[in-house]
Hints:
- By secondary structure, this protein is of the alpha/beta class.
- It folds into two domains: 6-197, 2-enoyl-CoA Hydratase, Chain A, domain 1 (Alpha-Beta Complex); 201-247, Orthogonal Bundle (Lyase 2-enoyl-coa Hydratase, Chain  A, domain 2).
- It contains twelve helices and ten strands.
- The strands form two sheets. It has a six-stranded mixed sheet with strand order 1-2-3-5-7-10, sandwiched between helices. A four-stranded mixed sheet has the order 4-6-8-9.
- Helix 1 (30-45) links the parallel strand 2 (14-19) and strand 3 (51-55).
- Helix 1 (30-45) runs parallel beside helix 4 and helix 6 (142-150) crosses helix 7.
- 36% of the residues are buried.
- The mean pLDDT is 93.
Amino acid sequence: xxxxxILVETEPPVGIIRLNRPKVLNALSFDVLREIVDALEKFDxxxxxxxxxxxxxxxxxxxxxxxxxxxxxTPVGLIERNxxxxxxxxxxxxxxxxxxxxxxxxxxxCELAMNCDIIIASETAKFGQPEINIGIMPGAxxxxxxxxxxxKFRSMEMILTGQPITAREAEKHGLVNKVVPVEAYLQEAKxxxxxxxxxxxxxxxxxxxxxxxxxxxxxxxxxxxxxxNFYLLFxxxxxxxxxxxxxxxxxxxxxxR
Length: 257
């Protein structure tokens, strides 16, 4: 389907999604989010795509939710439309998502970035949850994912004051993987997505599931989930190929089965 608010392209084995609302700094309306989720789900079904790169522009990854859309919302209306279920579908994306973040990543933009599995940030990136400044609070996972990532006290400060943090501060607190110059962040993210794409696809998928499970479960349950996925991989052709290639001192040729 043609998209109105995002640009989608493929550089197999990497799929690329770019937010494309420059006039409003890539503000996240529900229509934008719906398009992002649709593109991600299509990439999940495309066997030629092994990882996805999600980005915006140099000026703004996304400056936050579309306030015009939310300003007239009512509790009942939000419940009936259940548009926040889009975030649940986003969370269920199976293939790894590498976020390439530059400029503003505020509010919903910060929450979108935190749904990525790895984040490469430019030196100009700023991360924030400024919803408190307009009389609301994060509603798409910001209070939960930010706290689990950078801890109670730092997230309390960000959420209750609305003050953003720089890319270097985000890196220091574990919110991003790497900070690079603005002219290099996109290429660095592509390089990382390409590196992941060379690994055994089933192992990548199950490893991602296991890491995310650590957010949702006590340690013992998480360990059991990890062990189950570990055992499952011993039924794959890629496991046999990977170990054979290792003993023969050659690169493996994974087939995703």
